[in-house]
Amino acid sequence: MKKYVIIVAGGTGTRMNNVIPKQFIELKGKPVLLHTAQKFINAIPGINLIIALPKKLHLEWSELCDKHNFKFSHQVIEGGETRYHSVKNGLSLVPENCIVGVHDAARPLVTELLIINLFETAQQKGSACPAIPVTETIREVVDGNNRSVDRTKYFIIQTPQCFQSSLLKKAFLLPYQSTFTDDASVLEATGEKINLIDGDRNNIKITTAQDLIIAEVLIQKQ
User: Fold this and answer.
1) What pLDDT digit, counting tens, does each position of 139-158 carry?
2) d(CA 136, CA 43)
3) Predicted confidence band at 12 (pLDDT cuts at 50, 70, 90)?
4) Strand-pair category, 155-157 with 161-164
5) CATH no. for residue 89?
6) Of 59, 90, 122, 133, which has the fewest Cβ atoms less than 10 A away?
7) Residue 124 is part of which domain span?
8) Exposed / middle / buried, residue 52 (Cβ in 10 Å: 0-12, 13-18, 19+)
């Protein structure tokens, strides 16, 4: 089956306190987004790459591709108001009967092995999401009251999240809801089961300046 990936790069990086959008901040000499895209190209040769990016950044991305000699064929579409809308825009370029992954541009440390495992699982089972168990003590807060909960029942969900495209395209016909915080939550709203596989603790999402420092160390080890 053909394979597609939608890399969602719609953030502006306000929590980074940086005038440069976080997906364009350099990590070991290359923009974060370029590191991320390269991981999928290396993992799955011939993958169809779609990047959802704010329209005002399209020209800058093109210039960065030229600067860093990034020649891989890909499509750039306009990011939406929310992640849901960005993915929906990307899915308009994805055909039926293929496997599609959705990944955060700000997760450049995803491994090729994890990408391959997720696409293979989605092809077999319909969906695949990476998850890591919660190790901290957590408390539930409701209406000003809080209580301890059993952390063994909770997992942190990462990306990429992979799906049979027919299932995901159908799910994204649903009207937007604020509870749609990732792609699995959209598919789940149709009644489909979400299949979890082991994630990777190094697959961090770069959100703050501290995350960037950690990513620099981890990418050097890779």
Assistant:
1) 999 999 999 999 999 999 99
2) 32
3) low
4) unpaired
5) 3.90.550.10
6) 59
7) 3-221
8) buried
